[in-house]
Design goal:
Order of helices and strands: HHHHHHHHHHHHH
Radius of gyration: 23 Å
Distance between the termini: 44 Å
Number of helices: 13
Shape: globular
Helix content: over 70%
Number of strands: 0
Structural class: mainly alpha
Length: about 300
């Protein structure tokens, strides 16, 4: 009851007593309050002792229908006023996490334990999908494509891609990189380099999209990923040559290249310069969010 009262008071504060910009930082708490209240109701309706005796299928059903689905639907409902209140764009986080959490929970309700690797792959795929939505909103804004929504959607997407590929790589390194053990050394090495190749492609995509859309967070994640790649290449060079100096030489050269890339990106962001293809937006061939908002003000 106290958590339900907290949710009601929070809703009144957000909608009645604080400014829209201040409410933007509080909006994600409302779906979370719905999730907690729904979970408590589900536990009370099921019974704590009975819930502890359930298998993974029963527990997944309780969490799915009492917690995840209400949280996601409530976030979607509060996002309906997004064109009037762009600060609600932060609710994209709630919607994305809810939709992504439904995948393993729905599978669990059918008795399928998909495992950590499948969950990482679904996170990677979902991240690419929502990043594509962000690019679409940037190119064709319409009434939904505000700067806030583009930024939040893209940031959530690239972070999901980064975490998903990192988990896949970590899983490969922890479980399959067993050199000269049980006769799996060669295939394990092949699997490791395939995981690194996926990571490199994902990091390159994140950096290109972030630079094209002139967003800082994707470029920052790309630089973190490039640092991880540089360290792996340096270790490989040291192992191949049998000389520790090769590690410092290669890591120094690659680190200098990453610093130059970061410097160029900072200049690009500060000058707000755009790549050649995006001149279409400046020339008005494709409307941006700003031009769409201006046209809506002129023609209400």
């Amino acid at each position: 009851s106290r958590r339900l009262l907290y949710g009601i008071v929070l809703w009144l504060v957000i909608t009645k007593f604080v400014s829209a910009s201040m409410a933007g930082m509080l909006w994600p708490n409302l779906p979370c309050a719905v999730a907690v209240a729904g979970l408590l109701i589900g536990i009370a309706a099921t019974g704590t002792s009975k819930l502890l005796e359930m298998d993974i299928t029963g527990s997944a059903k309780v969490v799915l229908f009492s917690c995840v689905i209400p949280q996601t639907l409530s976030a979607m409902y509060w996002m309906l006023d997004l064109p009037k209140d762009p600060d609600r764009a932060v609710l994209v986080c709630n919607v994305f996490l809810g939709v992504w959490a439904m995948i393993p929970l729905v599978a669990a309700t059918f008795g399928q334990d998909l495992g950590w690797r499948f969950t990482s792959w679904t996170l990677l795929g979902s991240g690419f999908c929502i990043s594509g939505v962000a690019v679409r909103l940037f190119v064709v804004p319409g009434r939904w494509g505000s700067e806030e929504l583009v930024s939040w959607t893209l940031n959530v997407g690239v972070l999901s891609v980064f975490v998903g590929t990192s988990n896949i790589l970590m899983d490969q390194l922890l479980n399959d990189n067993l050199v000269d053990k049980e006769g799996r050394g060669g295939s394990a090495k092949t699997g490791e380099w395939e995981a690194w190749l996926l990571f490199v492609l994902a990091i390159a995509t994140i950096g290109i999209v972030g630079r094209a859309l002139n967003r800082t967070a994707p470029v920052l994640l790309s630089m973190i990923g490039m640092t991880m790649i540089a360290l792996r290449i340096s270790f490989a060079a040291s192992s191949a040559t049998g000389n520790v100096l090769a590690f410092f030489l290669v890591s120094g050269v690659l680190g200098f290249a990453i610093i130059l890339f970061a410097h160029r990106c900072c200049q690009h962001s500060s000058s707000r310069s755009q790549p050649a293809w995006s001149q279409l937006f400046d020339e008005g061939v494709v409307p941006t969010a700003a031009t769409a908002a201006a046209a809506e003000k002129l023609n209400p």
